[in-house]
Every structure is written in structure tokens, then in C-alpha cells.
Amino acid sequence: MSFETFADFLAMGKHGLYVWLCYGVAVLVIAGNVLALRRQRRRFFREAAALQKRREADSA
Amino acid sequence: MPLKTLWHRMGSPRWMYQMSGSWVWVLGVMATVLLIVGSLWGLAFAPADYQQGNSFRIIYIHVPTAIVSQSTYMLLGAAGLVLLVWRMKVADMVLATAVPFGMSMTALALFTGAVWGKPTWGTWWVWDARTTSMLVLLFLYFGLYALRQAIPRQETAGRACAVLALVGVINIPIIKYSVDWWLTLHQPATFKLTEAPAMPPEMWLPLAVNVLGIYCLLGAVLLAALRLEILRRERDTQWVRELVAAR
Description:
Chain A is mostly helical and about 60 residues long. Chain A has helices at about 5-10, 15-60.
């Protein structure tokens, strides 16, 4: 462990703002990539299912 | 499986879709574990830099995102080449799906670089070779994204993007050697193929873990995006219809 206390860990010397800003934005960007894909995949299945239902209704 | 069979199977979207499902999860879990371990290790256990203090801990995001943004671009260049020469469907799909991830990683590398630059260089930004060539990389990603949106016909869009991706590959060695060719504030590369790192292992080991983790993330995100693209393009085939009906 390179810090004595948890407060030291948060403070990062005098660079806490810079370090935590970087890590925070990185988490957001990575989560954004994953969540966007999940949303698009769900939308595809929703729309494809609706399309199939419409086609079945048309042909019936 | 013989290599030739594998090469032919890769031309089959259905086979690609069925084979890749579990890989998304394996790579995703590996990415999560590696990135958490590497980041905590770098944040809490690696020693502070004797000159930069704790701001250097930004390296554990900055370097992996910068590396993977260039690797993703090389992948786009390779996909462009394969598409132009062999007209492989999969290459066109890679060209269409890898762009957002690469773009976000380039932006993240630039952002973390700027935030690291402020306490270290005293400025958010300098127009030197490394930062400028990374900005060019970001614009190349913007260009690839915009070009695909602008051309409605899929085949034409694919070929235009392939040409742009290939031409842009020139920028990659410029980024890599920019710190050697020109005077710069940017520090030289941390990892080199020919030399041991200048850092002690307790500093570069967590970095290596995060680099591995971000490559796993690239694999997971790219495969997931590819699978979605396969579904979209094969929407009217029997197997996709059955898949949709089964949900």
C-alpha cells in the first residue's frame, strides 16, 4: 500500500482531482460503450419481433 | 480445424454468430477482472513517481487507451485491405462496427493526456507531434463515422470507408515515432519491444495488466457489435427469424 490512510488515498498528494477525474471519465466511457450496445441489441429484437408479427397479420 | 476451412467459415455470418456468443462473455469477464485489478493496483499499491508524485497514476488509463485506439485503427486498416481485395462480408462489418469503440478510446486517451498534462507540464494542451497526431487519429475516426452515415448504399459506403481507413494507417507510425522524431514535452514510450521498461516492475506490472484488460474489452465490445451487425444484415433470413421468434 503506498498510502497511510484512506483520506491520503483520496487526496493523491495534491493531484486527487486530476487522477479521480480521469478514472471517473474512463468508467463512464467504458460503461457507455457497453450500455449502448445492449440498448441497440434490445431494440433490434423488439423491432424485428414487431415486424414479424405485422407480416404474419398481413399474410393471414 | 484446418485453416482453410476456418477462412471459409468466417465468410458465413450464421457460423460467426453462433461461435462468438460465449466469447463475448468470456472476454467481457476477463476485461472486467483485469481492469479492476490493474487499476486498483496502480492507484493504491504502485509507488508514487519521484518527480510527478501521484498524478502519474493517470498512466494506467492513458497508456492502455492510447495503445488500443491505435490497434483498433490498425484493425480497421486491415479490414479495409481485406474488403478491397477479397470483398469479405466480415471485413465490411468490422469496418462498420469498430469505429465507435476506437473513437471513444482515442478521445479518452486525449482527455486523460490533457488532465495529466496540467499538473505535469503546466498546460492542458501543446501542439506538438504526439498530441497533434493523436488528434488527427480522432478526426480519422470522425471521418469514418461520418462517411458511413453519409453514403446510403452499403456497398459504396464500405468501399469508401475501406479507402479512408487504409490511407489513415500512415498516421499510426507517425504517432508511434513522434516522440523520437521531434522535440516534445511528451515522455517516450513506456513499453518497447527491444528494451526492458525504464520503470520498476511494481510500476509497470499493473500497467501491463490494464493493457491486457483493455484488449479483452476491445475483443468483447467488437464481437458484441459484430453480432448485432450480423443480425441486422441477416434480418430476413430463416435463422434470424427463428432467433427473433424464440425470444
